[in-house]
Design goal:
The chain folds into two domains: 32-227, Alanine racemase (TIM Barrel); 243-368, Lyase, Ornithine Decarboxylase, Chain A, domain 1, CATH 2.40.37.10. By secondary structure, it is an alpha/beta fold. The chain has helices at 15-28, 39-43, 47-57, 67-74, 93-98, 108-121, 142-149, 176-195, 341-348, 352-357, and strands at 9-14, 33-37, 61-64, 81-84, 102-105, 125-130, 158-164, 200-202, 219-222, 243-255, 260-261, 267-268, 273-278, 295-298, 301-306, 314-317, 331-335, 364-368.
Length: 370
């Protein structure tokens, strides 16, 4: 664990803003339940810090990727429901039972394994069932679902508490695939409802929440929006910002136009100016694709990232910044009010999810609003 003096950068995470974002989404979905997706260490921001705050705000259902994440999450939660999206890997069923975790059953084998384990344990065990409506990723095909529904003992020992699917293009509001998947899911829900009257239905994640009431069903699975990123393309971000990243200047160099910056000499200093070298790099999640494209801020002055991103270093042209604001030990905002996670993702040719989940472990992490 780095302290603020030892670290090359400070990552400030506003846990209160995450809780506020959850409250906003919960209000938006009305009578439906708003759950929280905290997989991949809460999108890189710290699951054991964030999940309790969401629980305190009123969140009662959480989703993680695998059983190991589920065990870690259970240790910092009370009796809230925890669903494991990857389902029960072979021979992990006892871990689910011991830690009160609910598998999302994605395949015929997972259904069979969970049923057999439930019967051997002499218990009726909860599970969610996942149908693939167009991702071709996880989930049962429609033929497999029909096979299960036509097999009388397929769900012996299983209490199905949720039926779910996942939208492929929900961040593109006008994409016709959204309505196609919604129709397929709705038709499948009618089959499920005939057998399980009290089961919950879930289709929408963060972006799906904003597609319309017909996508919301009983429970939504909010993820990226909780962490302050824009869930919808080409629309104003409705969420509160959560992350601020400040990199520490190690050294300043006065240069002239005959000099280049970084590996490969990909940037030539156009005129006399100043280059600030900052102690972060791709080893800390600053993507190499951001070289010569991204930018930071010192106060309200925009400073371009110049040259290639190195493993532990990156350079900025600070020629236009007043000299009294630039010195060794001063900070450059790598992510902040003027350059959001979404802005940095765009400049690096990627998505906000990748920026967040790659934020490194060498930062001093400053949690506020807890």
């Amino acid at each position: 664990m780095y302290n603020v003096q030892q670290a090359g950068a400070v990552l400030t995470i506003d846990v209160g803003a995450i809780a506020d974002n959850w409250r906003q989404l919960a209000k938006h979905v009305g009578k439906a339940e708003c759950s929280a997706v905290v997989k991949t260490n809460a999108y890189g921001l710290g699951m054991t810090k964030i999940a309790p705050a969401l629980s305190w705000a009123g969140c009662k259902t959480f989703f993680v990727t695998n059983v190991a994440e589920g065990i870690e999450l259970r240790q910092c939660l009370g009796n809230q429901r925890v669903f494991v999206l990857h389902g029960n890997y072979s021979n992990t069923e006892s871990d689910f039972l011991a830690n009160d975790l609910i598998p999302v059953l994605n395949s015929l084998k997972q259904v069979s394994d969970w049923s057999n384990f439930a019967k051997k344990s002499g218990k009726t065990l909860p599970a969610a069932l996942h149908i693939d409506t167009g991702m071709t990723r996880l989930g049962l095909s429609f033929s497999e679902l029909n096979e299960l529904l036509n097999t009388p003992d397929a769900f012996d020992g299983i209490e199905l508490v949720m039926f779910m699917s996942h939208l492929a293009c929900s961040d593109e509001k006008d994409n016709p695939k959204n309505s196609l998947q919604q129709t397929l899911f709705y038709d499948a829900c009618k089959k499920i409802k005939k057998r399980w009257e009290n089961i919950e239905f879930s289709l929408a994640s963060s972006a799906g929440v904003f597609l319309g009431q017909e996508y919301i069903f009983d429970i939504v699975r909010t993820g990226i929006a909780l962490y302050g990123c824009n869930p919808c393309l080409h629309q104003k971000n409705p969420m509160k910002p959560v992350v601020k990243l400040q990199g520490k200047i190690l050294q300043l160099q006065d240069v002239d136009s005959s000099q280049t910056v970084g590996y490969g000499a990909t940037y030539n200093v156009p005129t006399k100016g100043r280059i600030a070298t900052v102690s972060v790099g791709y080893g800390d999640g600053i993507l190499r694709s951001a070289g010569n494209k991204a930018y930071g801020y010192i106060g309200d002055v925009k400073v371009p990232l110049v040259g290639r991103v190195s493993m532990d270093l990156v350079s900025f042209d600070v020629s236009n910044v007043p000299k009294n604001l630039v010195h060794a030990g001063a900070f450059i905002d790598l992510i902040g009010k003027n350059n959001t996670v979404d802005d940095i993702a765009l400049s690096a040719g990627t998505i906000s999810y990748e920026i967040l989940t790659n934020l490194g472990q060498r930062y001093f992490r400053n949690y506020i609003g807890e």
